[in-house]
Design a protein that fits this description.
homodimer; 2 domains; seven-stranded mixed β-sheet; five-stranded parallel β-sheet
Chain lengths: 313, 313
C-alpha cells in the first residue's frame, strides 16, 4: 500500500462537506485530492446570504463563506482539481475512481456531491436564485417575515414547507400544477391554514414567469385553469423535488435509498468498506451547511481510522 | 399546550452545539431558553486557537468564536440564562426541568452539556490549558509539527493518541503512572514506534509539575521509579479519560452508554420522546466543534418536527 500512485483519500465534490473534511485530513498530513466538476463551494457558493451558519452573527454571503472553506482546506495542503467523476469501483480494497475518463486509485473515498433542487425552468428562476427565488424554507424562510410569498409545488414537501413558511408570512399563494399529492395528515393541516386565510391554494395552475423590477422579485405570471393571471409577491419558493447527485454511482454497488441518497452507518461509511459519504448527498441529510460541515469533520475522523487500520494490517 | 408557562424548548448547556441549535430554533420563532451553569461557549471558549472550525481560514481564538456563536443565537432572540440544571423528568409528555431548585416546564429539551477532560491536577496544568497543555490530539496535535511532546496516560486512548501524534512530532515521552493498560493490537502498534525511537515509554512515572518559562511550557517534572527527573518538551497532552456532564441525569430514565454518554437515534432523540441530545455529551460524539455545531442544527430541525407533531395532535 506504499505505492505513491494510490492516494490516501479522493473526495468527490468540493462543497462545504468535503472542504471541511479536507481541512481535517490535510491538517493531519493525509494525502487528499478533491475533484469538482462545477463550482467550488456547492450550493453554499450560489446562496446570496447565509444567516444560520454558526460563527457569523450578522450572516455572510454564500460565495464568501465558500471561499473561506476553500482557503482553509488549501492552507493545510488540500489539492482541489477540476474533473468529473463518472464511476467508482472497489478492486480488492483499492478504490478506482474514473475522473475525466482516467482512472485514479485511492485507499479511501469520500462522496460529497450534494443534491440539487429540481427547477421549474421558467424565465426569472435562474436569474433571481437566492435573491427572491428559493428552494429551502429552513434556510431562507426567515427572510420573509411579514411578507407575501408564492410557493410552487403540490407534493408532501411542498405542503409541509408551505405550512412551515406561514410562521413568517402574511399570506401564501400555493400554485399547484394539477392537484395536491400530499398525505391525509398534511392535507388536514393545510385546510386549517386555508380556513384561516393564510394560504390560498390554486389548482391546475402553471407557473410561467418570475417577474422582477429593478432586480427585485414582485410577481409571478401564471395560468390558472387556462386563464392568465398574476400573483403579487415578495418572493417565490419552489418545492418540486430534490435530485441527489448520485447518477455516477450506478453500477458501483453503493447502496442508495428510495430517493437516490447514499445510505451510511454511524461512521458515515457506505456499504462498501472505505467509501464514505457526507453532506446533502447522504440519506438523512438536513440540507444545512452546518450539518454538512459537521459531517465532513466526522467523516474525516472515520477516514483516518480506516487508513490507520490499513496501515496496521 | 398553549400554556405560556410551558416553554417550547429548554436547552441545557450553552456550548457550540446548543448555541447552533438556538440559532435555528429562534430564527423560526420557537421560544427558546438556554441554561448554563458555568461559562458560555463550553470548551471552545477556553481553547486558545481553533484551527479547524470551517469558515475561519487562518484559525480563530476560541473565546472569539464562542462569542460569535452567542451573539448569533441572541440576534434571533435566544434567551441565555445562568442556572444549574439538576434534574429532568417527563410527566405525561411535559418535560419538567429543575433549574437552581425551581421547576421549569417545556415541550422539548435539548441536552448539550458536553464532556470535560479528566485532569491530572498538577501545578501548571490549569495555567497553560490550551497554551502548552492539551487534551485533544485531533484539535491541537498539528500545532506540534517537528516538536517534542510529553504525553500523560496509559490506557487505550492514551496509546492511540500518542501514536497519532507521532505523525507530527520528532519524539514523544509517554509518562505512565503504573503500567500500560491498552489492547494487544495497540501495544503491538506502540512497540513499532518505540523500536523506531519515536516514542519512549516511562512506566511507574508520576507527573508532578508542568513547567513554563515566560509563559511557554518547556518541561515536565516527574518521578520515575521513585527518582525525580525532568522531561524537556514543547507541550503536554493529557489522556486520562473523559467525564461526560450527565451526572444530573441520574434517575431521569435517559439511557447512557457505558462511558456515561447519552444514547440517541438518527434524529438525535434520546429514549424519551421530546428529549434530544447533541454535541460532546452524545454517545458517538467526535469532540469537534464542527460536529457539535452540525448536530445542534440537526437537533433543532428534529425539535421543530416534534413541536409540529404536538401542535397537530
Amino acid at each position: 500500500m506504499a505505492n505513491k500512485d494510490i492516494r490516501d483519500v479522493i473526495m468527490v465534490g468540493a462543497g462545504p462537506s468535503s472542504l471541511a473534511a479536507a481541512v481535517y485530513t490535510t491538517r493531519e498530513d493525509i494525502d487528499t485530492v478533491v475533484y469538482e466538476k462545477g463550482a467550488i463551494g456547492g450550493l453554499a457558493a450560489i446562496t446570496d446570504m447565509v444567516d444560520n451558519y454558526p460563527g457569523f452573527p450578522d450572516g455572510i454571503e454564500g460565495l464568501t463563506l465558500a471561499g473561506y472553506f476553500e482557503k482553509q482546506a488549501e492552507r493545510f495542503g488540500a489539492q482541489i482539481e477540476f474533473g468529473e467523476v463518472s464511476a467508482i469501483r472497489d478492486e480488492n480494497g483499492i478504490k478506482i475512481v474514473t475522473v475525466d475518463g482516467e482512472e485514479v486509485k485511492a485507499k479511501t473515498v469520500l462522496i460529497a456531491t450534494g443534491s440539487d433542487y429540481n427547477k421549474i425552468g421558467v424565465p426569472g428562476e435562474a436569474e433571481y436564485y437566492g435573491r427572491g427565488v428559493h428552494y429551502c424554507a429552513t434556510c431562507d424562510g426567515a427572510f420573509y417575515r411579514d411578507k407575501r410569498l408564492v410557493v410552487v409545488g403540490g407534493g408532501n414537501s411542498a405542503v409541509q414547507e408551505t405550512i412551515f413558511l406561514t410562521r413568517f408570512t402574511t399570506h401564501i399563494d400555493l400554485l399547484v400544477r394539477s392537484t395536491i399529492k400530499a398525505s391525509e395528515v398534511l392535507r388536514r393541516d393545510l385546510q386549517k391554514f386555508i380556513d384561516e386565510g393564510k394560504i390560498t391554494v390554486h389548482l391546475n395552475t402553471t407557473t410561467e414567469e418570475i417577474v422582477a423590477t429593478d432586480g427585485k422579485v414582485n410577481s409571478v405570471r401564471a395560468v390558472e385553469n387556462g386563464k392568465p393571471t398574476t400573483f403579487e409577491t415578495d418572493g417565490v419558493f419552489v418545492f418540486v423535488g430534490l435530485k441527489p447527485n448520485t447518477q455516477f454511482l450506478s453500477g458501483s454497488g453503493i447502496e442508495l435509498d428510495e430517493q437516490g441518497l447514499i445510505k451510511t452507518n454511524e461512521k458515515l461509511e457506505t456499504n462498501i468498506s472505505g467509501i464514505f459519504a457526507s453532506g446533502d448527498v447522504r440519506s438523512g441529510a438536513t440540507l444545512q451547511i452546518a450539518s454538512a460541515v459537521g459531517e465532513g469533520a466526522a467523516a474525516a475522523l472515520s477516514i483516518r481510522e480506516h487508513l490507520d487500520e490499513l496501515n496496521r494490517a
